[in-house]
Design goal:
- Chain B: Pfam families: DUF898.
- The complex is a heterodimer.
- In chain A, strands 4-3-2-1-7-6-5 form a 7-stranded antiparallel beta sheet.
- Helices cover about 55% and strands about 15% of the residues of chain A.
- The N terminus of chain A is likely disordered.
- By secondary structure, chain A is α+β, with helices and mostly antiparallel strands.
- In chain A, about 30% of the residues are buried.
- Chain B has an 11-stranded antiparallel beta sheet.
- In chain B, a hairpin with a 2-residue loop joins strand 5 and strand 6.
- The chains are: A alpha+beta, B alpha+beta.
Chain lengths: ~350, ~375
């Protein structure tokens, strides 16, 4: 009798509890390996409760030290807290004992390396991978998308805020001719752009571009310019910049990328931090649109200089804004556009740079 | 059968059996950092498997009467669910920019799908949860979800929160009365009066926050008047003062609404769980100290922020332990054998949608 107990102890893999299929009842039991088969024996007594081929049982992957489950094909379940015993048995029987993931997860000084790697890779992904993904998405977007986008936006604007221009035909022709000069120098060419005159209403003195090259200039802006057509062309060159650099599509994809990122990490950072991330994402989007404005300003300087206009014409527009509207604000975290004085200075600096380069050539 | 003499759910006793949490921040740290690292390395794909490991850790360490719960969802199920929700979000955002009217139509359409999605989400989450080899189930229909998750929140918002307790009651009744453990049912009927008592406390906290802001505005009345008279004339020092005041006001609002929400959540949970019976006779109980819960949640957030997220595992374990140890069940009479009902898990789309939209309640 004593010998048989010892023998059974040698075969024992782990102690635990056993449930019949579909039942909450359990028996104290042990898992035993017997002649190539896996057997659950009642403790005490040793009655066979379940038997299964090694290949037909399913052992749950290890997570921390939560109980391990051994599922038999008949639906019964052996559960044990002795994770190490199960791991040793799996290793003995030539199966993968624990996943690589679990081995990484163990508390160990090397976790410091993982922390550093996480911070590094995280900022790399944010800094480089996300922009690359945005570029890929922009590249594979068929041109029909910005086309539909623009047509429907224009329709909505016309129906709600804009009305037909009151500008006389001669003035319109003058501006259109000058505009054609800068449009011809853009990669899309004159055919890639259409300039539309509208009375701005609530929009006020403004010019904006839609992603398919539709540009809108309001009568109020022409009035504000008081005959300085070159300045208007400078503003339009800025809008061409937005179109050439595909700013609006990028914005859409960046927003989608941020939403995806937050969705994936939400469970790991907790709901409080998730809310803060969403807010932070909004602020980042604002700062991105500031970068986009500055890029469009530089585009205006380059284009104007190429067309033989005054490269700093758009700076005059900001000067005018400053005088008429009293915008003296500096850039703050919360504004989409850089502060006017700052922006003017950046334009003048860049124009000097472009000019120096031209002279050097 | 030979199993009659074996261990089973306990016989009747007057004792409350509390849940415990056996995990530790130290152990979870490894799981957590590997989850995030692999999620980043695989550009998000691993996040589905990460969720399974995280949930298995938290369910498995939630222990009642010596036995833990188990989370059975597979990474692939979660991944497909996430893919569908993400595809919807991308299509929705593109449509909203490209053809705004169609985008808005899609948003309205999904609004009508919310009850169905929530119902399927609750069902999935219940069916992938087990205790002692028997899975939970959820048998609620779309109609109940419509009332609890669409009519309720809209009503609460329209009445500025005055009818929020009604919405809470609908929600807990919908979840609590349709939850099953194997073949046995849960029943609940949280009293409206008891929920309103909790609501009153939260309303007072918000009122206090508003009073503080009102006081701030009153102190700076002269400043504000001069601003209205001549908006251009404000010297920079006063402008800075105005900005500081704005920031303080924003923080006061944030803190008072945050604490009010946490206190309300804990209070309503206490009312709802404590009015729940399992199998018609075994009472459940939740006795979360309301301010204790708010303190744990708020200090968790602060500690996590100050340590750039590194203390998040500790914070998550701390909250789980706090909530578990304030949750209990008492057995009046022998529970006996509970039989499992075989059901398909179904798709994880609803569960992932709920997770994205921030619907958040344990099983």
């Amino acid at each position: 009798m004593k010998a048989s107990i010892l023998a059974s102890d040698n075969r024992t893999i782990a102690e635990g509890e056993w449930h019949p299929a579909h039942s909450s009842l359990s028996v104290v039991a042990r898992l035993v390996e017997d002649a190539g088969a896996l057997v659950v024996e009642r403790v005490p007594g040793g009655d066979r409760l379940a038997t299964g081929e090694l290949a037909s049982v399913e052992v749950s992957p290890r997570v921390g030290s939560i109980p391990r489950r051994v599922n038999f094909a008949d639906g019964s379940l052996f559960e044990t807290t002795d994770n190490d015993a199960i791991d040793r048995w799996l290793l003995r029987s030539g199966r993968r004992s624990t996943s690589l993931v679990h081995r990484l997860e163990r508390f160990h000084p090397r976790l410091v390396v993982l922390v550093v790697a996480t911070f590094l890779l995280g900022s790399l992904v944010y800094r480089y991978a996300l922009p690359v993904l945005v570029e890929v998405a922009v590249a594979v977007t068929p041109p029909v998308v910005p086309k539909i986008m623009s047509v429907s936006t224009m329709e909505t604007m016309d129906r709600t805020m804009l009305s037909p221009s009151q500008l006389n035909a001669g003035k319109q022709r003058e501006i259109s001719e000058d505009f054609a000069r800068i449009a011809a120098l853009s990669p899309r060419g004159t055919a890639g752009y259409s300039l539309n005159f509208r009375a701005g209403g609530a929009v006020g003195p403004n010019a904006f571009a839609l992603p398919d090259g539709t540009l809108v200039l309001t009568d109020e802006l022409v009035e504000l310019a008081a005959g300085d057509d070159e300045m208007i062309i400078g503003v339009l060159a800025h809008e061409i910049g937005h179109v050439e650099l595909e700013h609006s599509l990028r914005q859409v994809y960046r927003a989608a990328g941020m939403a995806g990122l937050i969705m994936m990490l939400a469970g790991d950072v907790g709901s409080g931090i998730e809310d803060l991330l969403v807010q932070g994402g909004g602020l980042l989007a604002l700062s991105h649109s500031r970068t986009a404005e500055a890029a469009a300003d530089r585009h205006s300087v380059e284009l104007m200089s190429k067309a033989g206009f005054d490269a700093t014409a758009i700076a005059r527009f900001f000067e005018l804004l400053e005088q008429k509207l009293g915008d003296r604000s500096d850039t703050s975290m919360l504004s989409t556009h850089p502060g006017t004085p700052e922006r003017k200075k950046a334009i003048l600096d860049y124009a000097a740079e472009v000019q120096a380069k031209q002279q050097a050539d | 059968m030979a199993l009659t003499d074996t261990a089973t759910l306990p016989a009747a006793s007057e004792d409350w059996h509390r849940l415990s949490f056996t995990g530790s921040g130290r152990e979870y740290f490894g799981i957590w950092i590997v989850n995030i690292l692999l999620t980043i390395v695989t550009v998000g794909i691993y996040s589905a498997w990460a969720k399974v490991r995280r949930n298995r850790y938290f369910y498995g360490n939630s222990v009642l009467l010596g036995r833990g719960f188990e989370y059975h969802a597979k990474g692939k199920q979660i991944f497909i669910g996430r893919l569908i929700v993400f595809a919807y979000l991308v299509i929705y955002n593109v449509l909203l920019t490209v053809v705004p009217l169609v985008g808005i139509a899609l948003a309205v359409l999904i609004l009508f799908f919310i009850p169905w999605l929530v119902m399927r989400g609750l069902r999935f989450n219940a069916r992938v949860t087990s205790y002692r080899n028997v899975r939970f189930n959820f048998v609620g229909g779309v109609g109940g979800a419509f009332l609890a998750f669409l009519v309720g929140p809209v009503l609460a918002a329209l009445t500025l929160g005055i009818l929020a307790p009604l919405a809470s009651r609908w929600m807990y009744r919908y979840i609590g009365n349709n939850m099953r453990y194997g073949t046995k049912a849960f029943t609940t009927d949280p009293g409206l009066g008891a929920i309103y008592k909790n609501w009153l406390l939260s309303a007072l906290i918000i009122l206090l926050g508003l009073l503080i802001i009102g006081f701030l505005v009153f102190l700076n009345m002269s400043l504000i008047f001069s601003l209205i008279d001549k908006p251009q004339s404000l010297p920079p020092e006063l402008q800075a003062a105005m900005v500081t005041m704005g920031v303080i006001g924003y923080l006061v609002i944030l803190v008072s609404f945050g604490i009010a929400a946490l206190v309300y959540r804990a209070g309503v949970r206490n009312v709802a769980w404590s009015s729940t019976l399992f199998d018609g006779r075994h009472p459940l109980k939740s006795d979360l100290p309301r301010f204790g819960y708010a303190w744990v949640a708020v200090s968790n957030l602060i500690v996590t922020l100050l340590t750039l997220g590194l203390m998040r595992p500790w914070a998550a374990v701390r909250l789980a332990r706090y909530v578990n140890t304030h949750t209990a069940v008492r057995f009046s009479g022998n529970v006996g054998e509970v039989f499992a009902v075989s059901e398909q898990d179904g798709s994880a789309v609803g569960a992932e949608f709920m997770a994205y939209e921030g619907f958040d309640f344990g099983f």
